[in-house]
Every structure is written in structure tokens, then in C-alpha cells.
Amino acid sequence: MAILVALSFFFLLVSENVPASARVSNVESYYAITMIQMTVSFFLNVLVLRFHHMTEEKVPEWVKKYILNYGARFLRMTFRASNNERLQSAKRRKFLLTRKKGLGTIVEQKKKQRVPIQSLADDKVIAKVFETQIKMAARDEEWKKAAEVLNNYSLILHVLAVLLTFGVVFFDALFLSNKL
């Protein structure tokens, strides 16, 4: 946000010191386009961060279809975890599933021993918590993948916009110098 304020301030200074003419100077057009690019880049970064940190909500179908499916395929992105990430994910999933299975066997043992129903209900609640944690970890992983795809698109868009801006301003200056 500070960059936008600085660019606006600089644009005001330049516009006050440049003599009035019928044609917009290259410097003015360059800084105006740069301000627009920075604004778009800022909002795209906010969107990427929103996707990256969105864990409470379920991933909508349109995100799965258009971003994770078509968008990732267009960029030729594959989501393979590194060996370290796979090991950590597998260990965590194994730990949670082992605890859940352990709770299931404990529940069965308590049923055979005729333990009070409240104790069984507590064990089932704990098992559901573990199930919820496994689902939330998978959901969090999906949101982070969507954020990665959006981040790559915003990077490509930004680079193309910068190159296009530079090309337009540079070639415009070349053609102006040839006319003079």
C-alpha cells in the first residue's frame, strides 16, 4: 500500500513540474500504468493470501474445477509432495488413524466390560475429533494448492504486464525521437 501512495505522490510531483501540453508525456503514462499494475498486483496478492489461509471453509466446486483442474493443467502443474512432506503427512495421518483405531478397540473392550454409556460416548467424541482433524488437513492442503496456482497466474500476469508496459513506452519513445 505504501508503494501506491509513493507512486501517487511522485505522479503528482511530476505532473506539477511538467509543462502543460496536448500530449501526455512518456513519464506520466509510464507512472500511471505502473500505479495500475501495482494496484492489480496488490489485490491479486491479497486474493492468493486469502486462499492460502482459508482453512475453515470447504473448497467450493468451482475452485476445484477451474483452478485446481483446468488452471493447474494449463500451467502444467502437478502437485507432488516432496519426500519430506510426504513422510510428515504420512506420519501424521498414521498417528491420527492409529489413535482412532486404538479408540475403536478401547470402545469395543469397554462394551464387553459393560462400562457406563457416558464413557463410550466420550470415546466416540474423541474419535470424531480425530476424523475432523484428518479432513481439515486435507482441506487445508487443497486451499494451499489453489493458492499456489493463483500465485503462478498472478506472477505470469505481472511479468507480462511489465514487459508490455516497457515495450509500449520504450517503442513510443523511439518513434517520437525518430519523428523529431
Automatic annotation (TrEMBL):
Q: Which InterPro entries match?
A: Neuro-gated_channel_TM_sf, Neuro_actylchol_rec, Neurotrans-gated_channel_TM
Q: Which GO terms describe its biological process?
A: monoatomic ion transport
Q: Name one Pfam family in it.
A: Neur_chan_memb
* Residue ranges of every copy of the Neurotransmitter-gated ion-channel transmembrane domain listed in the record: 3-110
In this entry, which stretches build a coiled coil?
none
Instruction: Choose one Gene Ontology CC annotation of this protein and give it.
Output: membrane
Kindly give the SUPFAM superfamilies that the UniProt entry links to this protein.
Neurotransmitter-gated ion-channel transmembrane pore
Q: Which keywords does this Swiss-Prot/TrEMBL entry list?
A: Receptor
This chain belongs to which protein, by name? Neuronal acetylcholine receptor subunit alpha-7-like
